[in-house]
Amino acid sequence: MTTSTALKMHPSDTLFAEATQAVRDFAFDHQVAQVFDDMVDRSVPFYSEIQRMISEISADYMVEGTRVYDLGCATGTTIAAMASATGKDVHFVGLDNSADMIHQCEVKLKQAGIPQPYTCQLADLNGPLELANASVVVLVLTLQFVRPLHREHLIRSIYEGLNDQGCLILVEKVLGESSTFNRQFIEYYYQMKRSHGYSETEIARKREALENVLIPYTLSENHHMLERCGFQQHDVFFKWYNFCGLVAVK
């Protein structure tokens, strides 16, 4: 079964379909956790391919006896995909600030029956974070939810926790480098969401819910942040309008 097929077996995302309810700030609560797999499958361009690429890249950098961290692990899709792509004896660690997401992650990994040991635990990525013996760290659409004031500190913590030749894999929604391209890219993105079954009401209400919660940087800002935090080797492995994937090596 493919990742995409598995995701579509989950409840459909209709959280923003009811226009009579007041829009509140987006939060990774029980309601979101229940439909999250369908939400990202329909809202993130080439989501299954991004997962495949992350698994392929991470497998090359995993080292026996080390830890592989997924910061903002959500429902565990990325850990399950990485585990299935390698036979190496590593310890997967999934961290998330949502207890509902951690529960979903534990359920998914148990059902997947991954052979490697794993730990899922609550963690606030806006606060102090200590990583140890890490060969791979992934943040999939996570850093954009960390308050800008704390992002650079988080990336520095990752750099310090990575072993030499360890890698960071970062997937983010990004701003265009100019207002012209940014407007175009956003409109192309909304066209994609329409094609995946989201109504104008759902698109508008989710956009309002995410305002001041999801705060993206430009691609160049992310590159510069990686450099300031110590990563001298970094490149783009995925780009689709206002979404990008970066890989950096210590």
CATH superfamily of one domain: Vaccinia Virus protein VP39
Content-based structural category: alpha/beta
Overall morphology? globular
Q: Name the CATH class of one domain.
A: Alpha Beta
Order of helices and strands: HHHEHEHEEHEHHHEE
Contiguous low-pLDDT stretches (5 residues minimum) are 1-8
Q: What is the first-to-last residue Cα distance?
A: 34 Å
CATH architecture of one domain: 3-Layer(aba) Sandwich
- Calculate Rg over CA atoms: 17 Å
Percentage of β-strand residues: 15-25%
Average per-residue pLDDT, rounded, comes to 93
How are the strands of the biggest sheet laid out side by side?
Answer: 3-2-1-4-5-7-6
Beta strands, count: 7
Tally of helical runs: 9
Major β-sheet annotation: 7 strands, mixed
Quaternary structure of the protein: single chain
Helical residues, percent: 40-55%
CATH topology of one domain: Rossmann fold
Fold blueprint:
Elements: H1 3-8, H2 30-43, H3 47-61, E1 67-71, H4 77-84, E2 91-96, H5 99-112, E3 118-122, E4 134-140, H6 148-161, E5 162-173, H7 179-195, H8 200-210, H9 219-228, E6 233-240, E7 243-249
Parallel strand pairs: 1-2, 1-4, 2-3, 4-5
Antiparallel strand pairs: 5-7, 6-7
Looking at this protein, list some descriptive labels.
single chain; 250 residues; alpha/beta; Rossmann fold; 7-stranded mixed sheet; 44% helix; disordered N terminus
Plain-language structure description:
The protein has 250 residues and is of the alpha/beta class. The protein has a domain at 47-175 and 213-249: Rossmann fold (3-Layer(aba) Sandwich), CATH 3.40.50.150. Helix content is 44%, strand content 20%. It is built from nine helices and seven strands. The chain has helices spanning 3-8, 30-43, 47-61, 77-84, 99-112, 148-161, 179-195, 200-210, 219-228; strands at 67-71, 91-96, 118-122, 134-140, 162-173, 233-240, 243-249. Strands 3-2-1-4-5-7-6 form a seven-stranded mixed sheet, sandwiched between helices. 36% of the residues are buried. The model is unreliable at 1-8 (pLDDT under 50).
